[in-house]
Amino acid sequence: MESNGGVDESSLLLRELQSLKTSKRDIEARISVIEAQLQQIQSNQKPSSDCSNGSSDFGHELTPDMIYRYSRQLLLPSFGVQGQSNLLKSSILVIGAGGLGSPALLYLAACGVGRLGMVDHDVVELNNLHRQIIHGEAYIGRSKVESAAAACRSINSTVEVVEHREALRTSNALEIVSKYDIVVDATDNAPSRYLINDCCVLLGKPLVSGAALGLEGQLAVYNYNGGPCYRCLFPTPPPTSACQRCSDSGVLGVVPGVIGCLQALEAIKLASLVGESLSGRMLLFDALSARIRIVKIRGRSSQCEACGENATLTRQQFQQFDYENFTHSPLSAAPLMLKLLTPDSRISSKEYNNVIKNGSPHVLVDVRPSHHYKIVSLPKSLNIPLASLESRLPELSSELKSVQESNETPNDSDVGIYVVCRRGNDSQRAVQLLHRMGFTSAKDIVGGLESWAHDVDHRTCIIITNQKMKMNIGITKSSIIPPSETIADSHLTDLLISFDPNVMKKALADLLVSFYLMAGRLDRAESGRIVINCNGEGVLFVEAELDSSLDDLGEFTPSPKLHRLTPTVDCSGNISSYPLCFAR
Amino acid sequence: MQLTLEFGGGLELLCDSVKIHNVDVDLPAETQKLTMKHLLPWVRSNLIKERPEMFIKGDTVRPGVLVLVNDCDWELSGQLDTTLEDKDVVVFISTLHGG
Ligand SMILES: [Zn+2]
């Protein structure tokens, strides 16, 4: 390209801008810490300078600033000055700065908890923002704790905010939790819930436990005032197949929001010593039917391995306990990778691609739920959700028969059976079942559609839907171009700077010779430059075949002006569900 | 005997995604009283449409399922020996872990 000089110059400018923004952030963080310290010093000095007897004249320790800030809750007869001063002296640890932790942290900071700790190892992602309302777009790619702490400090600089940017593990849990009076479990997985419970039992800390999934939520206070602990209620962990995560099953954003708010409320009640806590009871929230049910649960169990009469749990045992093994699921949100089958019953997505290329007669069964299948699927696949596989085996048999007849193979055992799901776990369960039912040649595709979508040299298939039409797009060639460096503001990124220029040049050259770039994640920056919206993940270039005319794309008309594609595209990988670069 | 059976926390997926079932359960001939021990196999064969192992393990519910009889943990009323009466509400709820 001849305009390389301009490219280099803007590259330099962008880099400088980036480094200035980083410094600005650091300075702002420092300012908020110093402001908080100053406020602390001033509020400590004020009473003694105003009156010789210190604050004892008021009969409480609230400074005039605090009285003004918290006046609306001080007015409550059942909370009042005593409740507020208890709260100001208390410390609360929120574990998890996600869907539950977001509103919990915001309210706890706002209401004047003395010290507020937060633990999370994760970073903010765009698909968190619909429910994790403490985080904003500017923090995508950065630590959740950093983001949450900044939000809490901006609401209330007088609260001491403590950041623990790490995962809670048996090695650090005792040390972290011991620094707080009350623990809020806002995590998203089973092993963490047992780990946090046991740690709270060992240290004698009350635990406010919340959970949410789909359109339901649950809330309880454990290990408080002689009440039960989490293990009293659930001595044996559930099977892994019963431990669904929001990342797999979905969750409506406001549902964890409701539960997180209630967790803040219970923590505030415990800290300020007001009201009746939800100990020995459980709150069940069903958003769809607008029902809240409060049920009475069992008391402390004498048999409980954590808190029972003969419980032998020691700190040392706790530190050596393998919670992931106990619950058969990982502590971090990394997706579960089962290994149920022997390698000869499995096939990689590359090998399956060869099956297609060679024209080997086979049936591909997609065992995902039908609403997933409708979003994206591979061509010529047969959707039989895992749950109904056993009862719908005749459909598979008749499909095998028709493939056998059309290929004129001598018998149906020559027709391969391949099973695919989203990540390659359910497909293994399905193959186990098929083997039991006599379909012994069945194999699953390792890593499922996710590995397929990430494997850049292969065909995959996207369905575009808008309100009126559905179009099948068979992708003939695709390549993902990752950003060549991490970019903080990844929404509007200059395409020539954010990507490895050589890869980009080649990819564009390949495309532009025979194709006309139309729209998608292309955008125009304020300066008028063409930019690509890449979410920090990179850009996926595709060549595709459509089963209907492009005019069907509705509002879009090719013109020098760039339009966004209105339909949503989901390629079922991590490349996001944003409209992609689209070419013809 | 008229009972209201409710499923939640994902267990409803095992019974065609229907959460609330108003059912009529026959009393066992020999005792003339209905206990949870009788009700569980009845639910298993009349309401559970798929993956019964996600509901039952051995002769009781699988780990992680709370059973509530009239909004009260069945541990407090005798678990499997809990005697049910006409118009009782029995809730089966799977514990959630998400957040
Ligand atoms: Zn216990």
UniProtKB/TrEMBL annotation, chain A:
GO cellular component: cytosol
Enzyme class of the recorded protein, top EC level: transferase
A Pfam family the protein falls into: Transferase
Active site: 246, 421
Pathway(s) served: Cofactor biosynthesis; molybdopterin biosynthesis; tRNA modification; 5-methoxycarbonylmethyl-2-thiouridine-tRNA biosynthesis
Binding site for Zn(2+): 229, 232, 304, 307
Domain of life (superkingdom): Eukaryota
Location(s) in or outside the cell: Cytoplasm, Cytosol
Cofactor binding summary note: Binds 1 zinc ion per subunit.
Key words, A-Z: ATP-binding, Coiled coil, Cytoplasm, Metal-binding, Molybdenum cofactor biosynthesis, Multifunctional enzyme, Nucleotide-binding, Transferase, tRNA processing, Zinc
Protein family membership: In the N-terminal section; belongs to the HesA/MoeB/ThiF family. UBA4 subfamily.
Function text: Plays a central role in 2-thiolation of mcm(5)S(2)U at tRNA wobble positions of cytosolic tRNA(Lys), tRNA(Glu) and tRNA(Gln). Also essential during biosynthesis of the molybdenum cofactor. Acts by mediating the C-terminal thiocarboxylation of sulfur carriers URM1 and MOCS2A. Its N-terminus first activates URM1 and MOCS2A as acyl-adenylates (-COAMP), then the persulfide sulfur on the catalytic cysteine is transferred to URM1 and MOCS2A to form thiocarboxylation (-COSH) of their C-terminus.
Protein name: Adenylyltransferase and sulfurtransferase MOCS3
Gene field: MOCS3
TrEMBL record, chain B:
Membrane-spanning segments: none
Cellular component aspect of the GO annotation: cytosol
Superkingdom, natural source: Eukaryota
Keywords, sorted A to Z: Cytoplasm, Isopeptide bond, tRNA processing, Ubl conjugation pathway
Glycyl lysine isopeptide (Gly-Lys) (interchain with K-? in acceptor proteins) cross-link site: 99
Locations listed in the record: Cytoplasm
Residue list for modification 1-thioglycine: 99
Post-translational modification (record): C-terminal thiocarboxylation occurs in 2 steps, it is first acyl-adenylated (-COAMP) via the hesA/moeB/thiF part of the MOCS3/UBA4 homolog, then thiocarboxylated (-COSH) via the rhodanese domain of the MOCS3/UBA4 homolog.
Statement: the UniProt record of this protein carries the keyword tRNA processing: yes
Chief site of localization: cytoplasm
CDD domains xref list: Ubl_Urm1
GO biological process: protein urmylation; tRNA thio-modification; tRNA wobble uridine modification
Pathway assignment: tRNA modification; 5-methoxycarbonylmethyl-2-thiouridine-tRNA biosynthesis
InterPro entries from the UniProt entry: Beta-grasp_dom_sf, Mopterin_synth/thiamin_S_b, Urm1
PANTHER family: RURM1 PROTEIN
HAMAP family: Urm1
Main function: Acts as a sulfur carrier required for 2-thiolation of mcm(5)S(2)U at tRNA wobble positions of cytosolic tRNA(Lys), tRNA(Glu) and tRNA(Gln). Serves as sulfur donor in tRNA 2-thiolation reaction by being thiocarboxylated (-COSH) at its C-terminus by MOCS3. The sulfur is then transferred to tRNA to form 2-thiolation of mcm(5)S(2)U. Also acts as a ubiquitin-like protein (UBL) that is covalently conjugated via an isopeptide bond to lysine residues of target proteins.
Family (UniProt): Belongs to the URM1 family.
Record protein name field: Ubiquitin-related modifier 1 homolog
Source organism: Deinandra increscens subsp. villosa
